[in-house]
């Protein structure tokens, strides 16, 4: 985006489906259905991320996960849902502010739309690279760094059986 502005109305944002490369496989599409609009780039922000996300009823935008580097803050704009946070399940509704600090399994989180209409929220986060995410439900860990042509993304099972000195 070539031009930035310090003020953006969320009412003017166009929500779009995730890129095909990030779409869930057919077996998971009934559980993960979301549209989003990136906001931070429009405002010229580089160290803070902001995205408006809209989740279909009965779905989540992302799998249950934690971040080792980045804190996340969510503001529920409309709708209602459930927040999985560590071992707890909490009801959330329009006007709620949710803090998910960086950490391990105890800070893993997921917003699920439990209502009859779309759940819309702002997701705000620090933008620290590299990032390590853990996915407790599926036993994976992901390492992420960079964006675009320079992006590095590696997904691996927790218990891959590979030793630190393997292949050296």
Brief digest:
The chain has 168 residues and is an all-beta fold.
- Point out poorly predicted stretches: none
SSE pattern: EEEEEEEEEEEEE
- The spatial strand order of the largest sheet comes to 1-2-3-10-5-8
Question: Averaged pLDDT, please?
Answer: 94
Task: Report the sheet with the most strands, covering strand number, pairing sense and barrel closure.
Answer: 6 strands, antiparallel
Radius of gyration: 17 Å
Helix amount, in percent? Answer: under 10%
* Strand runs, count: 13
Report on the architecture of this protein.
The chain is globular and about 55 Å long. It has 168 residues and is mainly β. The chain has a domain at 24-130: Jelly Rolls, CATH 2.60.120.10. It has strands at residues 16-17, 34-38, 48-55, 66-67, 72-78, 80-85, 88-93, 97-100, 109-113, 119-126, 131-135, 140-145, 152-157. It is 0% helix and 42% strand. The strands form 3 sheets. A 6-stranded antiparallel β-sheet has the order 1-2-3-10-5-8, with no helix packed on it.
Q: Descriptors for this entry?
A:
168 residues, mainly beta, Jelly Rolls, 6-stranded antiparallel beta sheet, 4-stranded antiparallel beta sheet
What order do the helices and strands come in, and which of them pair?
Layout (H helix, E strand, L loop, with lengths): L15 E2 L16 E5 L9 E8 L10 E2 L4 E7 L1 E6 L2 E6 L3 E4 L8 E5 L5 E8 L4 E5 L4 E6 L6 E6 L11
Antiparallel strand pairs: 1-2, 2-3, 3-10, 4-11, 5-8, 5-10, 6-7, 6-9, 11-12, 12-13
């Amino acid at each position: 985006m070539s031009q930035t502005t310090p003020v953006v109305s969320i009412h003017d944002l166009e929500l779009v489906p995730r890129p095909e490369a990030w779409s869930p496989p057919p077996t998971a599409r009934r559980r993960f259905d979301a549209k989003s609009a990136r906001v931070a780039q429009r405002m010229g922000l580089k160290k803070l991320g902001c995205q408006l996300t809209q989740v279909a009823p009965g779905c989540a935008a992302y799998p249950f996960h934690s971040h080792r580097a980045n804190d996340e803050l969510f503001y529920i704009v409309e709708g209602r849902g459930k927040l999985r946070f560590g071992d707890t399940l909490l009801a959330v509704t329009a006007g709620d502010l949710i803090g998910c600090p960086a950490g391990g399994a105890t800070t893993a989180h997921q917003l699920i739309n439990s209502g009859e209409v779309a759940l819309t929220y702002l997701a705000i986060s620090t933008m620290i690279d590299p990032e390590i995410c853990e996915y407790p439900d599926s036993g994976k860990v992901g390492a992420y760094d960079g964006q675009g042509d320079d992006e590095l993304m590696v997904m691996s099972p927790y218990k891959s059986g590979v030793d630190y000195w393997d292949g050296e």
